[in-house]
Design brief:
With about 150 residues, the chain is mainly alpha-helical. The protein has a domain at about 20-110: Transferase(Phosphotransferase) domain 1 (Transferase(Phosphotransferase), domain 1), CATH 1.10.510. About 40% of the residues lie in helices and about 0% in strands. It has 9 helices and no strands. The protein is globular. It starts with 18 loop residues before the first helix and ends in a 12-residue tail after the last helix. Keywords: ATP-binding, Kinase, Membrane, Nucleotide-binding, Serine/threonine-protein kinase, Transferase, Transmembrane, Transmembrane helix.
């Protein structure tokens, strides 16, 4: 960070990077990360990138103007959420708090889950010893059983 409190390092995968990072005028890392998460969400739902071009400068132009089209199977509420996340203006881009409050984002979550009031049997805890072990021996034996989601948003 410089004295202006913004980041100035240009980094990231071109198709995922926020417009303000490309502009090289400084950017708020958290707001840029929201953009990148929006690209990831789009890819998870559509199966392809929202911004694509074989010409890097044309790709950057599309990113800078948020030129993308949602597939026709995207529900209106998903389109609206993506439009707020992939807002090329970081000052008007949706915040994490507002994303978490979005009706589509919250769909399928029980109130107790959202508040962190789950019972230990509902979610398997992360076995950090197994995750960071130098050997794979015994990891399979300690692998927690995954709980299937009750609802899928996609």
């Amino acid at each position: 960070k410089r004295q202006d409190g913004l980041l100035h390092t240009t980094c990231g995968t071109p198709a995922y990077v926020a417009p303000e990072v490309i502009s090289r005028k400084g950017y708020d890392g958290a707001k840029a990360d929201i953009w990148s998460c929006g690209v990831i969400l789009f890819v998870l739902l559509a199966g392809y990138l929202p911004f694509h071009d074989s010409n890097l400068m044309e790709l950057y132009r599309k990113v800078g103007k948020a030129e993308y089209k949602c597939p026709n199977w995207f529900p209106p509420e998903v389109r609206r959420l993506l439009a707020r996340i992939l807002d090329p203006n970081p000052n008007t881009r949706i915040s994490i708090a507002k994303i978490k409050d979005n009706s589509w984002f919250k769909r399928g979550f029980e109130a107790k889950f959202a508040k962190g009031e789950t019972k230990s049997k509902e979610l398997a805890p992360l076995d950090t010893d197994a995750a960071f072990a130098s050997s794979d021996a015994g990891v399979a034996a300690r692998k927690p059983e995954l709980v299937k989601p009750q609802h899928l948003n996609a």
